[in-house]
Amino acid sequence: MLTPDLDGSLRFFTDYLGLTVNGRSGDSVYLRTWDDYEHHSLVLTAHQTSGLRRTALRASSEKALQRRVRELEAAGHQGRWTEDEPGLGPLYVTTDPDGHELALYWESEWYQAPDELKPGLKNQPQAKPGHGVGVRRLDHVNYLAADVAANADFHQHLLGARPTEQIQLDGGRIAAKWLTFTNKSYDVVYTEDWTGSRGRLHHIAFATDTREDILRAADLALDTGVFIETGPHKHAIQQTFFLYVYEPGGNRIELCNPLTRLVLAPDWPLITWTRDERAKGQVGRKKVIITCTAVFSLASALCAVAPSLGVFGLGRFIAGLGLGGLLPTTITMVAEYAPRGRRALIVGTLMTAHQAGGILAGFVGLWTTGAGRWRVAYWICVVPLLIGVPLIATYLPESLNFLVAKGRTREARALAERYDVELPGPAAERPAAGDRWSAVVALFRGGLWRTTLLFWLASFCGLLLVYGVSNWLPTMMRGAGYELGSSLSFVVVINLGGIAGMLIAGRFSDHFGGARVATVWFAATALGVHLLGIHMTLPLTYVVVFLTGLFLFSAQAMIYATVAGRSGDDNRATAVGWVSGVGRFGAVFGPWLGGQLVAAKSESRGFTAFAIAAVLATVFVALTGLRGPQQTPRRDAAQQLTTTG
To answer: 513: domain range?
Structure first.
């Protein structure tokens, strides 16, 4: 394996995975897993890029090796003999049709553990490591290939592999194929390279003893700063429980537990998965945005014509469902199309529309204060159905991840190039379709449950503030001694501050980290809301209201941006959706709390109550970890590979 950061990669494989160094030669380090009988499991070599230089396969005998060589050469795959690896005899080096370098050999030096690594059991090559994950063995290699079928046929007909499962697209093209040389369900995988490149790597995988080891590996990754791409999850294909991480050199590493699934039948049939079988229940984020917008507008129309309070309440509830689905979906979509290093800024820019709507709501409130004119406000909410939905249907691109999941890779690639963003990394397959709650459960696995709950609590307090202050600010300001006109103008001013805050917080978050900015912003919000309870001159009050809005609304938006940034492609929508959904309880409680305080003629206590909520939000976000912006390894760097290095 090639790495541009030999020292960092070595620490990853030894300290995190628990491999043992068994020799060095120049810029190469020989590493082994504790249950490998051979000299080494992995050669780590310093290089200008990441990738895989060579994969070595052991034949079942010297005769079998010579037979495979003859068949390869007869088929036109000429190779060369070399002896350039310690612990191995002569290797016959060739390439598959895609250009991945392969070596075949028979002679192998059995590992003899030194005294300090001798195991207690004589049928075990080495003592188990007392640190790190302690992976048992190198499990499989997953290559990217321009032509999956040709490479799979090469392994099947010339190297003796058996195909066990495959993904076939609607047009008949094979998108991925799993093959085995043993009774394991798979040893080699080929996944279609959507870029059309050749000779690249998707990942290498190490097996653990148990499923629980995967969960512990996720905890260790969080503790040691190892980047988690996705998981823990369970694959539908091959039913492997897994975790994808990146090592410092940029190579994707899978930790897997195949649940002792073996292929014991000599006539095992090839299992074929269709595109639809792998993407059940997915409708695309664009359709969700259109549907939620339509639901919100139609429910608002119901409110406008409501003949009774019950019908009005039903309309408001349905409108809330539409709005509740719209916000996390649009945030996820925008985060997906955001350029590298600018996700928080783009999410903040999106949320300025929320504040612009708040400004419009202030003017609408001034305009519809007369008896019976409140219905006009709800008719205005029908405008998105008449104008927004047609524009969305015509111009909004579909989610890249959805297109990839549906096998529409050409369309996804074209969109990625048009908007100058990265195409989502090819995945060997998605989590099991029957395990739809796995993405939610993943939010609580290992040490993640603390962070998840803290973000939920912070979102609850944040939306309590957003909706409590927005709804009751005019009334509370009147209770503080300001005139009605000025009190309604405060709604416009606080939302103007919100627009400025979104842009400032987004830029700061991309530079310093969303959690850090949200913590400072909520603390400033607590101070600003508390000051609003003090009667000041009108110009000074406008300044305080503006600054409070600057910090208040963008603090909540940075929670969304932080959660989106810390989530993988496969569960980003789930994470943002749940943090937004739980926050909606705060959006209900905030206006209720304000109403109770106003009804009790305790408007001044309202400012104190909302300031306390801001302090709690500050604490909750701070406890999630005030780390800087997450540096996501570039996917193309993780897949770089040339046969010559």
So the answer is: 285-396+431-623
